[in-house]
Amino acid sequence: MINLIKKLIREKIYYKGPYASWEEAKVNSTGYDSNEIFEKVKKTALFVKNNKKFYERDSLILYKDDFDKYLINVFDIYSKKKIKL
After folding, report:
1. By CB neighbour count within 10 A (0-12 exposed, 13-18 middle, 19+ buried), where does 69 fall?
2. When you count CB atoms within 10 A of the terminal residue's CB, does the N or C end of the chain come out lower?
3. What do you get for the CA distance between the two ends of the chain, in Å?
4. Which pLDDT score is estimated for 1?
5. Do 56 and 44 touch, CB atoms closer than 8 A?
6. Whole-model pTM above 0.85?
7. Average pLDDT value for residue range 6-22
8. Cα 32 from Cα 58, distance rounded (Å)
9. Please, which residues have CB within 8 angstroms of residue 83's CB and are 6 or more apart in sequence?
């Protein structure tokens, strides 16, 4: 089942470089240690803490009843046909 999910949502990831070392790559990139990302996640986490109808994923605020209806439908079809994923 995990492999099917991965195939459905797979995004192509590209890497550019090359870099002589991890430190050189780190200097030329941004990532989760960025203060901008930290502040965004902190802001959304505090919002969710005070608003129980929401949750946070990857710094995005989502409504608790916000499900991927297409994916649920796919699982439902496969389960009714008793097909192993």
Report:
1. exposed
2. N
3. 4
4. 60
5. yes
6. no
7. 68
8. 11
9. none
